């Protein structure tokens, strides 16, 4: 059985006092390098690494440019840290 609600003005929270930032973004932090591959075209080679991000599953890992990742996360590229250091080549037709 429902009872009648008695309104209490002292329980009202003013939303103007809450500070909300306009930028509600956060920075993803890489945890581990899972794989490495080199894609070859006729004129150049592009090295990529598969990156596992914090708070993500392995299935959600992304391929990123190796050069960019070395600049941002150099600690991930210490000797012996990259598994499968062989190159998986992809011959694309351009």
UniProtKB/TrEMBL annotation:
Pfam families: Chromo. This is Chromo domain-containing protein. Residues 32-77 form the Chromo domain. Signal peptide: none annotated. InterPro entries: Chromo-like_dom_sf, Chromo_domain. It comes from Solanum verrucosum. PANTHER family: CHROMO DOMAIN-CONTAINING PROTEIN (PTHR46148), RETROTRANSPOSON PROTEIN (PTHR46148:SF56). It comes from the Eukaryota.
